């Protein structure tokens, strides 16, 4: 994919403190096929900062394990990616050529599955592009609050948080059912607020229901490693911001809304 080709012109303005965990995409034996995993990840749009040719802003990595590799930031929020571009454009005293380059930056949305696919195809290449996720700040804070409420001592959360609703801490995940058929799905939310909405419905019947905090790395590893039939039912639910963005894109059809089906599994 051309949008994921390494952008050789590094601005030197992308600080490492901006980046979350580096997703390097190491594989073990697959429980689901790569195609199935990609299909699930494709439901989530992520946002790269690119130039006017669609090439991502990147910086080289110099440690011994990633010699020749470079890294680019992957934003979970389009608004936060746009805000970062504005910050770069407003830095005073840049060389005119650098300023022109910075002014050409834009936000490019790609499916998360495309990044996953790119990582699998390039995992044995020394000069590959790695992806460092920048999670949404409020979702990170929400994840840490939930973890503290469960008794865990956490001071940071460096990955992208995922929120899953359970019937209780020791029981299974709550499924939803689409109105168009009887098929059940297990939603994993990118937004704590969305998970809370499902939890509020379920608690009317199951008072012990709660929200489990996991992360995108753990989800992908589970899809790769585990041989459990219920994994086929897992669906990733984008945040409201991303859903609104998706709704602006031309599509032939739209999915029906899901409703909670609070029946114990």
UniProtKB/TrEMBL annotation:
It holds the Pfam family Tic22. Residues 255-265 have a biased composition (Polar residues). Gene3D superfamilies: 3.40.1350.100. GO terms for biological process: protein transport. InterPro entries: Tic22-like (IPR007378). Residues 246-265 are annotated as: Disordered. It comes from the Bacteria. This is Tic22 family protein.
């Amino acid at each position: 994919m051309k949008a994921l080709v390494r952008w050789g012109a590094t601005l030197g303005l992308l600080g490492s403190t901006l980046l979350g965990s580096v997703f390097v995409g190491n594989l073990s034996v697959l429980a689901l096929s790569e195609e199935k995993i990609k299909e699930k990840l494709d439901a989530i749009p992520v946002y790269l900062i690119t130039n006017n040719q669609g090439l991502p802003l990147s910086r080289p990595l110099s440690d011994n394990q990633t010699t020749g590799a470079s890294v680019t930031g992957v934003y979970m929020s389009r608004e936060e990616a746009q805000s970062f571009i504005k910050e770069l454009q407003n830095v005073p005293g840049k060389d005119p050529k650098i300023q022109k380059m910075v002014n050409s930056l834009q936000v490019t949305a790609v499916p998360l599955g495309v990044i996953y696919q790119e990582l699998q195809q390039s995992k044995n290449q020394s000069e590959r592009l790695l992806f460092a996720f920048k999670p949404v700040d409020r979702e990170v804070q929400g994840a840490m609050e939930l973890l503290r409420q469960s008794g865990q001592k956490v001071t940071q959360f460096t990955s992208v948080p995922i929120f899953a609703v359970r019937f209780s801490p020791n029981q299974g995940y709550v499924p939803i059912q689409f109105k168009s058929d009887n098929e059940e799905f297990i939603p994993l939310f990118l937004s704590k607020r969305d998970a809370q909405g499902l939890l509020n419905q379920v608690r009317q019947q199951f008072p012990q229901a709660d929200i489990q905090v996991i992360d995108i790395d753990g989800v992908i590893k589970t899809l790769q490693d585990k041989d459990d039939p219920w994994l086929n039912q897992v669906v990733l639910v984008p945040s409201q911001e991303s859903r609104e963005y998706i709704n602006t894109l031309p599509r032939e059809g739209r999915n029906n809304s899901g409703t909670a089906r609070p029946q114990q599994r």
